[in-house]
Design a protein that fits this description.
Blueprint lengths: L1 E8 L3 H11 L6 E6 L19 E8 L1 H17 L5 E7 L5
Antiparallel strand pairs: 1-3, 1-4, 2-3
Amino acid sequence: MKLVLIVYNEAIDSRIDGLLADCCPIASFTKWTKVMGRGTHSEPHLLDHVWPKGNNALITCVPDDVAGKILNRIREFRAKDPKTGLKAFSLPVDDAT
């Protein structure tokens, strides 16, 4: 099992939802909105008067092969639009309840 964390510009929320639905619909996830952050290739998203945009973060626990599919789709998305804030991480899950 893998824990997949996707952090992205709130403006592309529907595109990320569509990407996941097309790739590998996930049964359960948690999504946080209004997340602040700064990356190396996009503008800061700090939810203040200077940098008013925010991020969303989505986390899900999926089988290893599904995690690989998700990360590959994220890589494809980033290759087409490298300046849009989007990162994904895959972490091993030792146990869950």
